[in-house]
Structure formats: C-alpha cells, structure tokens
Design brief:
This protein is α/β, with parallel strands linked by helices. The chain has 9 helices and 7 strands. Helix content is about 40%, strand content about 15%. The protein has a 7-stranded parallel sheet, sandwiched between helices. Helix 3 runs parallel beside helix 5 and helix 5 runs parallel beside helix 6.
Length: about 270
C-alpha cells in the first residue's frame, strides 16, 4: 500500500511549478489530490509557460493517485469557498492542504517587470500587491480548511515559503516573512486540535519560470519541483509531524532526515551549505 492511500489533499496553484511537483508526488504516494489553478488547458495560461490543471490531474492519476481539477482564481473568495464545498461534498474530509498559489513572478514571465536584480523603486507598486496577494490566499484557504480538520481532529497544512532571503527584494521578502508568521499563528491556534502547520522552504527549483529565465540563476545545486513534493509526502506520512508544527522546514534538510532523493537520484544541499 502506498504511503498516503486514502488521504485527501488539496494543492493550490498546481498548474505548473512547485505546486505541480507536490501534486505529482502526492499522487505517486496514493493520495486523492484536488488541484486548483486558472489554466484549464495548455497554451491558455496568463503567462508564457506550459502547464494546466487538466494536465496535472492526468499525471497525478497516471502516477497512481486520483487527480481532480477545480478551476479557481484565488483572487475570488467565492471561488475558493466553492473548492472546499466541493471537497466536503465529495470526500467529507481533508487531510492535507498545501498553500502554494502565488503570483509574484508573473510580471517577470510576461516582461512587465524588470529582472529581480533591479531595485524596488524601479518596479510599479503592483509588484507589492502581486507578491503579498499569496499571503492572503493562504489565509483564506486555511480559514476554510480549518473547520474540516478540526472536526476530524487531524490534518496537515503546508505553506510554501522561502528562507534564504537576500535583502533588497523588498516585496518578495516581506511576503515570505509574512507567510512564516501566518504559520506560527495558525499552528498555535490549531495545536489543541491535532492539526499541524509548517512552512516549507524549497531551494532553487527548476520550475518552468526559472528555466525561462535561466540566465539569471546558477542551477548547479537546483531542485526539481518533485523534490518539494517528496518532502510534503514525508511530512504527511510522519505520525509525529505535530512535533514540527509552527516550524519552518528546509526541503533539503528534510531529505536528509527522511532519507529521500530528488527524481534524478541526487540529493541537493540546503542553500546555506552549497
């Protein structure tokens, strides 16, 4: 039996990138995986990148899980609420929520914003809005997941964040710091209900967007999106994960703790060790 057979997961923003990698890994572990995103078919995305929720769900099912796509714009609270109502009606439970949806890099992909090395005052104020929006999306999804998890007296919420912050990328760094604070606060509130909440720090991930802008990155110690997915699977399968609730966890360090590798057989180092 796979590690997560019978478990129900929701991964937000899983048309591509880290969200897709997490969904695929959860499917490979046998979970039923609900996937949200705006793009329902290839070549219809708001950014010049491949991927759709349809493609992801098909691959999840091919891997051994059950993929279920729900089109959702996380800017619209009513659509997000409908996602949770759908899951409640279908499954009556939710074991894992991964808050991954985020749009901070969209302006890079569409050339609306200059590259990350440019100073904050040379970007429009909308860059702040697009980075901080993801924090609100995580909060909204968490408020909707909490009643389901409290009622069943268990659950895991994973907030995708980032720890190796270099001063200067103001909006991004504040968004990730806020995500980590959200983790601490929600973990405290849900502790007595056996619901665990963690921040998860991938390293440099070879997403479609990163590969599109590969000239700006040193990919020598990079990770596949599924490396983060394998960390989520390990956490979800750990009966003692509640001991980590409220913590910020590094994917590459979890690989050492839980003894898993990336899809190419390598084990990337934490960014602080590369």
């Amino acid at each position: 039996m796979s590690k997560l057979t019978g478990k129900v997961a929701l991964v937000t923003g899983a048309s591509r990138g880290i969200g897709k990698g997490i969904a695929l890994s959860l499917g490979e572990a046998g979970a039923t995986v609900y996937i949200t995103g705006r793009t329902t078919a290839e070549n219809q995305a708001a950014v010049p990148l491949t991927g759709s929720i349809t493609t992801t769900t098909e691959e999840v099912t091919t891997r051994g899980g059950e993929g279920i796509a729900i089109q959702c714009d996380h800017n619209v609270d009513e659509q997000v609420q409908a996602v949770f109502e759908h899951i409640q009606a279908d499954q009556g439970r939710l074991d894992i929520l991964v808050n991954n949806a985020w749009k901070g890099y969209e302006g890079y992909h569409t050339n609306r914003y200059p590259p990350p090395l440019f100073p904050f005052w040379e970007r429009p104020v909308t860059f702040w809005d697009e980075n901080l929006a993801g924090v609100r999306w995580s909060y909204v999804a968490t408020t909707l997941a909490a009643p389901l998890m409290v009622a069943q007296e268990h659950g895991l919420i994973v907030n995708i964040s980032f720890g190796a912050l270099t001063p200067g990328n103001v909006a991004y760094n504040i968004a990730k710091s806020a995500t980590d604070r959200l983790t601490v606060e929600v973990a405290h509130s849900l502790k007595s209900h056996n619901v665990s909440v963690v921040s998860l720090y991938p390293g440099l991930v070879r997403t479609e967007g990163v590969l599109l802008n590969a000239e700006y990155f040193d990919l020598s110690n990079s990770e596949s999106p599924e490396f983060t997915g394998r960390a989520v699977v390990a956490l979800a399968a750990d009966e003692r994960v509640h001991k980590k609730s409220g913590d910020a966890l590094v994917v590459a360090e979890l690989a050492q703790e839980y003894d898993f590798n990336d899809i190419d057989g390598n084990r990337p180092l934490p960014l602080s060790q590369d």
